[in-house]
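Q: What structure does this chain adopt?
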Amino acid sequence: MNHMAERVFPISPVPGVTPVDRVQQVSRVNSPQDGQFGALLNRELNRTAEPAISFSKHAQSRAAERGIQVDDTLMGQLADSVERAQAKGATNILAFDATRAFIINVPHGRVITTMSQEEMEENIFTNIDGAVLLK
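A:
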């Protein structure tokens, strides 16, 4: 006599769920050895590991007007600033060095505006919760 069988209770039907009459066999399209999933996963992990920085239209026009060169080095510095600000929980930061400044919305990785050294001397920065020195 099986004691386990005595303790089995029937399961009531779940509303909205249709019972399955039979299970259909599925064949694999790609073999697991081809590595496509792993390659795709690694590419996505690497893509999301670096914060993407973008410039608003306003910031793009301000940078052009003020002669601020936007190159790979600057984009790396801004991405590093956003990463450091995220670690501290900041949402809007001033990222700056001796010659230029950028107001950045950290959660969206978006540069809102840019300033030259002359403009930094004339302005008071408001609505920011952090300042990061560009490295």
